[in-house]
């Protein structure tokens, strides 16, 4: 098992790294769902990333609330178990008796979790996908495989000049360093961005969906 660390988006200096992490997450959820497993508690704190990188690898943890059912369209009638992101169909008032689909609840949680990766600046249409995933009506949400397919299509159309540009978090840290006249911080953040840029540029083919 490699050395793992919490997902820290400030370690993702380029949009390429952010999109690669998001791609791994949606593909991971699609794989779990294909096996009839709903995670039940998708959240940024239940994801770990490889300590070394880029490229980073994402791992799912905490399957205590997972639900196993080969029929992914099946509605379950059970008490909401308390995942960190609660979908609207299991509000507290009815959580003990209202049926819900745990697989579609995963999709809602995934849409909320994606906001941490700042995918919108280089690809505004990604926001539309997120909104679809977070529909109040579960029946209007796409499946995990449909999300993965849509993500791959949108990702493939992003120009390289955008995909290798610095993330909003990186730009913010640059501004903080400049305003605070902290040259050491500015050079460190710039160096980390350039190192990541070089690594990803020469391995850029791997950052396109197959």
Automatic annotation (TrEMBL):
Source organism, top-level taxon: Eukaryota
One Pfam family per UniProt: Pkinase
Database matches in Gene3D superfamilies: Transferase(Phosphotransferase) domain 1
GO biological process, one term: intracellular signal transduction
Keyword ATP-binding: yes
UniProt keyword Nucleus present: no
Keywords: ATP-binding, Nucleotide-binding
Every Protein kinase domain range: 1-210
GO cellular component terms given for this protein: cytoplasm
GO molecular function, one term: protein serine/threonine kinase activity
Name of this chain's protein: Protein kinase domain-containing protein
The organism of origin for this protein: Exidia glandulosa HHB12029
């Amino acid at each position: 098992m490699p050395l793992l660390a919490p997902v820290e988006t400030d370690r993702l200096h380029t949009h390429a790294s952010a999109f690669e992490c998001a791609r791994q997450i949606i593909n991971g959820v699609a794989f779990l769902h294909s096996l009839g497993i709903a995670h039940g508690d998708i959240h940024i704190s239940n994801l770990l990333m490889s300590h070394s990188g880029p490229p980073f690898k994402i791992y799912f943890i905490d399957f205590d609330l997972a639900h196993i059912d080969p029929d992914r369209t099946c509605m379950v009638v059970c008490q909401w178990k308390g995942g960190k992101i609660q979908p609207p169909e299991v509000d507290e008032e009815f959580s003990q008796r209202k049926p819900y689909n745990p697989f579609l609840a995963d999709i809602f949680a995934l849409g909320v979790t994606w906001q941490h990766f700042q995918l919108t600046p280089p690809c505004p249409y990604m926001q539309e996908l997120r909104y679809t995933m977070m529909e109040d009506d579960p029946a209007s949400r796409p499946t995990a495989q449909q999300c993965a397919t849509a993500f791959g299509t949108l990702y493939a159309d992003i120009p390289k000049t955008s995909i290798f540009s610095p993330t909003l978090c990186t730009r913010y840290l640059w501004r903080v360093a400049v305003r605070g006249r902290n040259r050491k911080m500015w050079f460190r953040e710039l160096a980390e961005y350039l190192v990541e840029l070089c690594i990803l540029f020469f391995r850029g083919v791997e950052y396109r969906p197959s």
